Amino acid sequence: MTSQPGMSDVILGCVVPYIDDPKDRDAVSLVCRRWYELDALTRKHITIALCYTTSPDRLRRRFRHLESLKLKGKPRAAMFNLIPEDWGGYVTPWVNEIAENFNCLRSVHFRRMIVKDSDLEVLARSRGKVLQVLKLDKCSGFSTDGLLQVGRMCRQLRTLFLEESSIIEKDGQWLHELAVNNSVLMTLNFYMTDLVKVSFEDLELIARNCRNLASVKISDCEILDLVGFFRAASVLEEFCGGSFNDQPERYTVVSFPPRLCRLGLTYMGKNEMPIVFPFASLLKKLDLLYALLDTEDHCSLIQRCPNLEVLETRNVIGDRGLEVLARSCKRLKRLRIERGADEHGMEDEEGVVSQRGLMALAQGCLELEYLAVYVSDITNASLQYIGTYSKNLCDFRLVLLDREDRITDLPLDNGVRDLLRGCEKLRRFALYLRPGGLTDVGLGYIGQYSPKVRWMLLGYVGGSDAGILEFSKGCPSLQKLEVRGCCFSEHALAASVMQLTSLRYLWVQGYRASKSGCDLFAMARPFWNIELIPARRIVMTDHVGEADVVEDPAHILAYYSLAGPRADFPETVIPLDPLAAGVEL
Amino acid sequence: MSRATVELDFFGMEKANSGKTQFQKFLDRRRSFRGIQGAISKMNPELIKSVISSGSTNRSPVDWRKSFSVPSSPKEDRSSPVSSLPILNPAFMSSSSEDGPDTAPLTIFYNGTVSVFNVPRDKAESIFKLAVEGSSKNIESTDSSKISNPSSEQQNLLETRNGDLPIARRKSLQRFLEKRKERLTCASPYAW
């Protein structure tokens, strides 16, 4: 028995480790000092949504026994080429802290950060014996030399994830090191990297040595060269990547592993598609983003996949494809429809998705939890359908493409309102329209009817400052807000920030700047960092050497931080210092 | 061959010479310029005239560097009339100074005027493309040489393109679509 009322430490100690949800853990840690300390000792995983919000030192002081860490760096806009490459998000100080002090750390995930070969070497040397998961997710700054160290020294890796990272490729040795040193690998991912010097023989070796290999996603590599790999990878469930460069008939020899149920074959065309048919009914996930199929092909393939739960593709699927999807895939949970080519001559013929497809989808796929779609046309009614039928929707993202001059039914005020009221589980919401797409009233609806939404992206919505001010009276749970191409003044943005009670992160590009940039100081407050990326002109060279000059308007980035202003600004980022400007806090 | 005496107005130089300090030219919707298209459209009008006159008197190329101070970057020349020039396409310059024999006369008939340029083949093709595209694209005049960012300029930038921030593409998809374009336009799809 304890001398104080309440649970004994022993009981508490047994119960708390079972609590995993971060929000629950947050709540636990706020009860009293005892509970705070117990949480600190037993918390297994931490996600730091922006690496500059705290410091490695602080993390160590609170969560010394951490087993798993996820760190995010650059703003999400970096995935769309909108953030300077040297913006920041260096892992070095974190890696150094990990090497010295985090003795229980087994899983490291860096997302949109800058990683150097030396960082990888430090990590591999210090934690190589225990590291089980290493994810360099959309990172840059390192080469295959760093990966070589990982392959050599991290022999306990279950997961090596490099998807979409920009890697300087010197050779394919790193994969060979991985192949000869590791026998426990379960997940290997270098999808959407430009690594071409990897050898398929090493892949085959990995498949033979690692009996638990369940998921492999690779860069371009001729599928015919992978026949041996597929034969060896007997428990493979997921495969993405590869490439089709030969005559279609030759691919009949390809035989896929029996448990394969998540698939994405790069450059797969109409003539190669039939190799998937024999096991299409087993497919739970299909990635057609990088395939070369037309609308008819989509219809033909999708109707054979009644167990499909996740589909990712481009808008070549068309309304017709969505209707087939709605009829055939009743278990669909996640659907992402990306924007296809719209360059003249490169477009897909029926490649438009509109209200017609959305309405069919809403009625047909009642289990939908995630929907992200680029549409060419839209109506209020289709959004209302989603509100009526998609009761499980947690994440909804709609972008209205800008090719058509006339949209059937704008503004979308009522449709958006009805969608938000109907989809009660919504946590993430993105709406990217055009001037006239949503009035200030509609923007007010968003504020009013999104009680649980934590993240929002708003593009070209509202008509005046009144809109954002009304919006910010609501959104009680909004933690992270991204705004693009809006007409709001600095002053209104600052005032809105002060009204959004849960807001901890704001990103804006395209707004009405004041002459001095000082109107932003209306949101100056302790622990709130404000940074500007001034307007730039970027020269981008595509892979055939053609130069493209793009105007990039100014960005505002503001976030709560316990660590004070950054100390590693590049030239392209300017901190706003209210103290220096003499602004009273 | 007689001296070319026709006054060229293909690029609206009359307007440029009438008091405007900047040589305003169209950009395409994505505000991009490629190769010769950009270089010609932003060239010093005096420079273009010199090319014409030198092209008709002698086939050997003009050394522009002697005739004018051609800026290599816009920053150097804020005060002179050519201050608005962006980076001159070096490819254009070098080809004209080196490949005398590889250039051929390009004759343009436009709105009652005739003019002759000495250009290499690839530049000629770009000019043809330019002419084709110029008739169908939106024409916006804009100040294209400023790099820095006072707030009032941000204002201008936003005002001229309110509603015009292009929808950004995801990097991964951008790369894929470029590769797809190669595959679709390649003559033999089954490469090796």
Automatic annotation (TrEMBL), chain A:
GO BP of this protein: SCF-dependent proteasomal ubiquitin-dependent protein catabolic process
Q: Which residue numbers delimit the COI1 F-box domain? A: 6-45
Q: InterPro entries attached here?
A: COI1_F-box, LRR_dom_sf, Transp_inhibit
Question: To which species is this protein native?
Answer: Hibiscus trionum
Cellular component GO terms, alphabetical: SCF ubiquitin ligase complex
The protein's name is CORONATINE INSENSITIVE 1
Q: Which Pfam families does the annotation name?
A: F-box_5, Transp_inhibit
Q: Which residues form the Transport inhibitor response domain?
A: 65-110
Automatic annotation (TrEMBL), chain B:
Quote the entry's note on domains: The jas domain is required for interaction with COI1.
Tell me the protein family, please: Belongs to the TIFY/JAZ family.
Source organism (scientific name): Hibiscus trionum
Q: Which GO terms describe its cellular component?
A: nucleus
Compartments reported by the entry: Nucleus
Q: Which residues form the Tify domain?
A: 99-133
Q: Which InterPro entries match?
A: CCT_CS, TIFY/JAZ, Tify_dom
Which UniProt keywords are present, listed alphabetically?
Jasmonic acid signaling pathway, Nucleus
Keyword DNA-binding: yes or no?
A: no
* GO BP terms: regulation of defense response; regulation of jasmonic acid mediated signaling pathway; response to wounding
What the entry lists under PROSITE patterns is as follows: TIFY
Q: Where is this region: Disordered?
A: 53-85
Could you tell me what this protein is called?
Protein TIFY
Q: Report the protein's function.
A: Repressor of jasmonate responses.
Provide an example Pfam family for this protein.
tify
Question: Which domain of life does the protein's organism represent?
Answer: Eukaryota
